[in-house]
Q: What sequence folds into this?
């Protein structure tokens, strides 16, 4: 059946892995190191600092909405986004990404200018 003789006196062994193919890492694995509370606090602080301009913009939008005496649904319709999305942004549950920030910034700039013009006109009429 086989054309060659079997060697029965040699033991079978698995090939040895060379030291060149082994991966050694000098840094400990992430799940083996415990992050210190200070590192976590620094990460949270950095994330909050990154979101601060968005927070200011959202606060301005909320104030402008209150001055105009409009609902969140009306504001969302004017901006062109779903009401639920705007609600989550205004309650700081989620932060808007770049397109959302642009939409809010344009809305605030547009109605801020209209309110300033309106206040100037009413101030002129009340003085005379």
A:
């Amino acid at each position: 059946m086989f054309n060659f003789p079997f060697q029965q006196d040699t033991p079978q062994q698995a090939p040895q892995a060379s030291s060149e193919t082994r991966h050694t890492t000098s840094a400990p694995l992430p799940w083996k190191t415990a992050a210190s509370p200070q590192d976590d606090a620094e990460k949270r602080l950095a994330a909050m600092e990154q979101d601060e301009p968005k927070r200011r913009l959202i606060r301005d939008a909320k104030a402008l909405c209150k001055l105009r005496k409009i609902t969140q649904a009306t504001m969302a319709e004017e901006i062109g986004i779903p009401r639920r999305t705007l609600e989550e942004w205004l309650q700081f549950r989620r932060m808007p990404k770049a397109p959302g920030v642009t939409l809010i910034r344009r809305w605030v700039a547009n109605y801020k200018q209209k309110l300033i013009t309106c206040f100037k006109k009413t101030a002129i009429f009340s003085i005379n």
Notes: The first helix runs from residue 37 to 68. The two ends are 118 Å apart (CA to CA). The mean pLDDT is 81.
